């Protein structure tokens, strides 16, 4: 798994890299291949950590960002946002309204018999 991590005003430690790789590994449970995964971490002057992530999936791209006082809290928040987007994409074909066209059609004779 190749995960590109860029740090702005912060050094990427092995613990940060390990946490991000763990979270992206958990996203694989949706069986959607994530391609070109990129994470950018920056520390703002106001001591807030800002994380932005993007990844390509079949049929589109997912992008999420999170801000938090705690770096690992921001990573968790980012993971939750990515998880919601991937879950939505994974279940999109099942949620299509047109896929319900195979429901049984009631004939007019049956409707009259029910009304009587």
Automatic annotation (TrEMBL):
<keyword id="KW-0346">Stress response</keyword>
<keyword id="KW-0810">Translation regulation</keyword>
<dbReference type="InterPro" id="IPR036567">
    <property type="entry name" value="RHF-like"/>
</dbReference>
<comment type="similarity">
    <text>Belongs to the HPF/YfiA ribosome-associated protein family. YfiA subfamily.</text>
</comment>
<feature type="compositionally biased region" description="Basic residues">
    <location>
        <begin position="89"/>
        <end position="98"/>
    </location>
</feature>
<dbReference type="GO" id="GO:0043024">
    <property type="term" value="F:ribosomal small subunit binding"/>
</dbReference>
<dbReference type="InterPro" id="IPR050574">
    <property type="entry name" value="HPF/YfiA_ribosome-assoc"/>
</dbReference>
<dbReference type="GO" id="GO:0045900">
    <property type="term" value="P:negative regulation of translational elongation"/>
</dbReference>
<dbReference type="GO" id="GO:0022627">
    <property type="term" value="C:cytosolic small ribosomal subunit"/>
</dbReference>
<feature type="region of interest" description="Disordered">
    <location>
        <begin position="89"/>
        <end position="116"/>
    </location>
</feature>
<protein>
    <submittedName>
        <fullName>Ribosome-associated translation inhibitor RaiA</fullName>
    </submittedName>
</protein>
<dbReference type="Pfam" id="PF02482">
    <property type="entry name" value="Ribosomal_S30AE"/>
</dbReference>
<dbReference type="InterPro" id="IPR003489">
    <property type="entry name" value="RHF/RaiA"/>
</dbReference>
<feature type="compositionally biased region" description="Acidic residues">
    <location>
        <begin position="107"/>
        <end position="116"/>
    </location>
</feature>
